[in-house]
Structures are given as structure tokens and as C-alpha cells.
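Check the record.
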Amino acid sequence: MLKLMQLELKKFHLAGYIRSALIANACILGLICIIALDSQSEGIPEFTQYTQLLDIMDIFVRATFIVFSSVLLCRFIVGEFKSKSITILFMYPIHRQKLMIAKLLVVLLFTFLSIIISEIIITAAIHLLNQFVLIVPDNLTLSILGQQSARTLINAVAASFMGLVPLYMGMRRYSVPTTIVTSILIVALLFSNNNGATLSSIAPVQIGFSILGMLVAYAAIRRIEYKDITS
């Protein structure tokens, strides 16, 4: 399985996606700084505690990489089925299901690691900038970092599986735009701010969408065993 995953990574040149992820990090950092500085100029600081800022950052990061996950799904799975280039892979003496599992694992792991690493990078950057420009009038303590780390780990796992949900719509007609639009709609539903709260902050909702992502992945794995790709 590990060998199959390595082959997928080589084939699709993951370095380009890493660069895109870093650009996304820069955009999120810039947006948070703009929100903080603009609110302070109006005399009503948006962030008075690090926990508030880190919660907003977590929402931005997860929302970004759920959509990013759909792009990976389009490249690794939906696009190959649409162009029927997947049939070439199926000619090799490799079980179809193993091939699909390898592709899904690549997407899952990339999304999970991207969220974790992005939050580390952005948190470090904000803490550094806060030494020179007041972004949040608070101190970043080990206690706050410990609590945030636990939440980040749980949320990253959940978001990784949430990112698989758009695959269901994408595989119905092998449509790249449908896959990406579905991910955007999911993000809009789960991360829209409603009086300071989001649906993604409700544990049953988060768990439900994560389980849905697992079911979509399982259905995709089972489907290709019997689907005639050439039709």
C-alpha cells in the first residue's frame, strides 16, 4: 500500500500542491492580520484573547483545506475516471480496491498534515508578528497551546474525512466542477458564522459529516470493483 501511495505522489508532483498550501497559509495569515488591525483602528478590537484568534484561524484553515481536498480528489480520482486514464492503471496486476484506497489515503493524509502544519506555521507567525505589531493584547501560554493542540488534532482528523464527502457527487457523473462546488457548499454550511457559532463547532454535526465522509470513501472503493470504467 505504501508503495502505491508513493507512486501516486510521484505521478502527480505533490510539490506543486505544497506550494499552493503555503500560499494559502500566507493568505490566511494576511486576512487575520487585516481583521485584527482594522478592528483596532476602529477602537473595537476583534481579538482580545489568543483563544479567540486561534479559533478563527482554525476555522479558516479547516475550511480552506476541505476545499483543497476536493481539488486533490479531482486530480487523483475524479479526473482520471473522467478521462478514462484510470483504465491504464487497472491493466496492472493490482487490485482495484487497493488502488482506490491508496488514492484516498494520499488525500486524507495530505489534508490532515496540511491542517496541522498550517496551524503551527500561522500560530508561530502571529506570535512573532505580535512582538512588533499589536495583533492581540494577550500572551500565548503553554496552557493555551496545549488546549489548542488537542482541538487541532481532533478537528484535523474530522476535517480530513469531511473533505471526502464531495467525492460522492463528483463520482456520479465524473464531474470536476461538481466536486469542487460541493466542497464549497459544505464549507459554507459548516463554517458560516451565526452569532459567533458555527455548525462545525457542534460535536454531533462534526462527527456526522466525518462518518459521512467515511461512508462515501467506502462506497467509492466498493463501486469500482463492479463498475465498468470503459462504459
Observations:
- Residues 14 and 116 are 17 Å apart (CA to CA).
- The two ends are 28 Å apart (CA to CA).
- The chain has a mean pLDDT of 86.
